[in-house]
Design a protein that fits this description.
Shape of chain A: globular
Order of helices and strands of chain B: HHHHHHHEEE
Strand order of the largest sheet of chain B: 2-3
Helix content of chain B: 55-70%
Helix content of chain A: 10-25%
Structural class of chain B: alpha+beta
Distance between the termini of chain B: 134 Å
Largest sheet of chain A: 4 strands, antiparallel
Number of helices of chain A: 2
Radius of gyration of chain A: 19 Å
Radius of gyration of chain B: 49 Å
Oligomer: heterodimer
Strand content of chain A: over 45%
Number of strands of chain B: 3
Number of strands of chain A: 8
Strand order of the largest sheet of chain A: 2-1-8-7
Structural class of chain A: alpha+beta
Amino acid sequence: MGIKKILLLLLTTTLLAWPTGGMWAGEPAVKIVVKTVLASQDSTSVDPRISALTRKLQSVFRYSSYRLISEETMHLRIGETGTVSLPGDRRLKITPVRITGNRAELQLLIFKKKRQIIKTRIQVLNHGSITVGGPEHKGGFLLFDIFNSF
Amino acid sequence: MKKAHHECDEELIGRYLDGELSRKEHDRISRHLKDCSSCQKILQDNQAISTVFRDNLEREVSQTDFSVLETRALDQIRQKENPWWERITKLFFSNKLLIPATALAALILFFAITRSPTTISGPSAIVEAFSGEVSSVMIIETPKSHQTIIWYKETS
């Protein structure tokens, strides 16, 4: 391959990669992925789809089983609210408030039936996540891993 | 041809006027014209037409801007020799553009790669505010991965 072909390949790669970096995007949209996991002592199975998350959780929790119940992806603009249905008649409402540096500020509301259980405001690293957990469900505990990227 | 040498011939007179005859024919027509009034008339008419035509032509030529025509013709020739897509290709493949563009592309790629969060500094999330109907809440950060966890217990 000639030097000119290599240079052209590099140039093309950059041009193709540029828009995905969000440099040309207008109003930023935040990609949110919510994974609902059931942690329990029932078995020793670990869902391979959440192996990375499980490794993090295993450093502080002693559950033997981590099972992915559901996964939902949303693209939300600043100020836009997305809702995710959770087990046990629960709902999670997520609103990106602003982006500051490499963190997105998110407002999280968890409801059980019509009752608001928690309200929190967090700053999550770009390509990072926060895990919210604790509700009991079917002999185990629910964990909601909320990932974001922008 | 015999007829032309010895009798009136309008075509020969025209060629005589244009200087297209051989010396021999030219001399013969000259001699004939001295004695033939009808051929003299034809010659005079032809000379008059020729003068009018030449004068008009010279006037038109003097009014024409040949530099514009020349420029236009040269442009057309250049375009045919070197079409626009060929010129763009030449510019794109020339080192004058390719090397700086590639250097810029390499810099952008470098910063894009180094900018991506391969290593996490600080907690994955900072909890700014928390409220709710819970009996207890813990905010935990995992040791190595710095994953932030909010663990709460719902009130019954």
